[in-house]
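Can anyone check this?
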Amino acid sequence: MKRCTILAALLCACGLLVSGCATLDHNAPAKSASTAAPAAASSTPAASAASADTATPIPDLNDNSPQIKWENITIAPAVINYDNLWDYLGKNFSLSSAGGDGRVQGELNWYADHGAYLQRMANRASPYLYYIVQQVRSRKMPLDIALLPVVESAYDPYGYSVARAAGLWQFIPDTGRHWDLKQNWWYDGRRDIAASTNAALDYLQYLHTQFNNDWLLALAAYNSGSGTVEYAIRRNQARGLPTDFWHLDLPAQTRAYVPRLLAICKLVAASGHYGVSLPPIPNQPYLAEVNVGGQIDLAKAAKLAGITTDQMYMLNPGFNRWATDPNGPYTLLVPIDKKNEFMTALAALPPHDRVQWDTHRVKNGDTLGGIAFRYHTTVAVLRQLNGIHGNLIRLHQMLLIPVSRRTLADATLMAEARVARIPHYGHDRHESHGRIIHPVRPGESLWSIARRYRVNVAELRHWNGLHADSILHVGQKITIYSSRSRVVDTAYTTGQGLHNVLRTVYYTVREGDSLYSISTHFKVSVSDIADWNGIDPHHYLHAGEQLKLYVDVSDQSSNG
């Protein structure tokens, strides 16, 4: 009786009420961590993403400490909350590398030997990782997948590949459109953090189902396509060989792709063991989604939110221009501690002050294409804004033109520059103490010259005493102040509101390629390709030859 009284008192002290006497079961197995499920997710992928601004720090779901089990009651151990998101992830990865043939260890060794690379990656991931972990967790997917952007893009939202894959999750244009990622002059959903994450997780869940709930095969298919993986499986089946990932004859890139993800997860789980120090990321929400209700100038939105324009672009890298797409999406990501301030200021903003427009009176010889080129917009945008069908415009007609609020003083570098530089070759310029004299060629404009030398139009006007209406003439000497090499792989916004993001791409020439076809594919000029690679513009290309290109990522979106 005394024993029951003591036990009852103990249970009361624990906040538990039990009828009758309980007995301590010393042989009861510990409760499996897998039964401690995350918060329930919607069965519909599109509705399953958790709202980042209402999320709480992610608790540890994999604590294997002993538990005391009573006859009808299990007293669970205290939930451990990790302040550092890396620590939480390290305790909750679930994909197994069992069966690997040394590939995981090889990738792990590479990561461990490149600590500086990992630190840069972690810094880039810092604003986005918690949000992505929440989306993965809400769907009850392996948390390992939250690190897939490490493998895909090193967590660079402006990552761009020779295959024209873009964003954290590296969607190529066609696959992006298939998963409803809008791509046009204003916006590219492949780089939108929320939209691309949702699409990538939808795609991975689809592949997971297609490959009989095998995550490694789903990941392999994400990299090389489901057809490639299916073919490898059928080939092994015909030979009586195992059909798991480790036994499939897949392309070399895919054979390394899955081990690379497993390796980075192993390293995060035991970073200290491998001598790697990752900058901590708080285990708490950082981003909040705000629907702004219509088109808005991004510099104006940044001011309302109390952040810099550069920060606004880094959190919303899907926008190619100075403003959001007139037709949406209208959702912006802002730091969660700025959400209320932003919403209050947005509600007080007069509708006419959301974007800035200019007018252009049509002159003799004007065409829609010429006007679009002059104002750094597109014919499609001018048609849409002015209700024009076709290409017919009238003399003295007033056209509405979108313009940016951003001034030259605002045009600053915003992304970490890497060490790649553009060497200038050629014989039509003279350099002295950083000054370049450029003779204007047929078809050139201030904009094309600015892009060529990695400066902005406002600077060119200032250096040469030109006005907005100034017309260039063939042979006219334009002065550019520039070092012989200019840093690339940067992002900046010019005084004209053009958001330029440059990335280095190494392209291997294929049969049938020409400088013209490559220039068209990546939206650069033949003369630029020739300059960057020290070759003649009429150079005959050979299959296997490698070319270095400096691609403006924000100019690669299409209307599809």
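Reply from J.R.: I decoded it. The chain has three domains: 85-269, 286-405, 415-555.
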